[in-house]
Amino acid sequence: xxxWLAWGSALGALAVVVRWWLRxxxxxxxxxxxxxxxxxxxxxxxxxxSAPGMLRSREERRLxxxxxxxxGIPVSVHCQALGSAALDDGTxxxxxxxxxxxxxxxxxxxxxDQCQALAAYMRSAKRDPTPAEVGAxxxxxxxxxxxxxxxxxxxxxxAAVQRDAELARLLGAPxxxxxxxxxxxxxxxxxxxxxxxxxxxxxxxxxxxxHRPDPPW
Length: 217
Ligand SMILES: [Zn+2]
Fold this sequence. Notes:
The chain is mainly alpha-helical and 217 residues long. It has a domain at 56-197. Helices cover 56% and strands 5% of the residues. The chain has 8 helices and 3 strands; from the N terminus they run ααβαββααααα. It has helices at residues 2-22, 36-71, 82-87, 112-123, 131-147, 153-161, 164-170, 175-188, and strands at 76-79, 94-95, 107-110. It has a 3-stranded mixed β-sheet with strand order 1-3-2. Helix 4 crosses helix 5. The longest helix is centred in the first third of the chain and has 36 residues, at 36-71. The chain is elongated. The two termini are 44 Å apart. The model has no long low-confidence stretch (mean pLDDT 91). Bound molecules: zinc ion.
């Protein structure tokens, strides 16, 4: 909705300028003053309405880069906008759709709360991430595993817990702080995930242990 407001006020400003230009000299040959007040007001409305969208795309580009590095191919991350969040009654925190070729797409939608937590994490010193920030970094890691075409939830989840630290580093955390995200998710959230998201093989030395350098266990 804010995008429409931004476009509307920008077009309004254009209309004011065109109208002034066409009638800049009156019938007696006097020059009409430029409509500065209308232009300043419409300009402020344009900037005010487009700022959230511009901020969101800047955050999305940072998330694109981090997720692409994690997945190993170019992927894109979309953050849910305010308007669609208001209409959304789904319980998932992010999702990746299937493409026409039957493979999972290389783009994901991350829900608004999780995107805001990711933005807060990126802005923070990252030494003491909040549970919301830990969860949001993990949601992006999990959806990134779907973008690697891992459809099974338990497999995607276990691959993600082994990459939470790497993703936190890609989002700007120093190594020790990045590991904190992985360990906190592993201890505080993974055990409480629905059964479809867990696997007995997801543990040190288990069937799903990829023996990566920074596992959460
Ligand atoms: Zn999933």
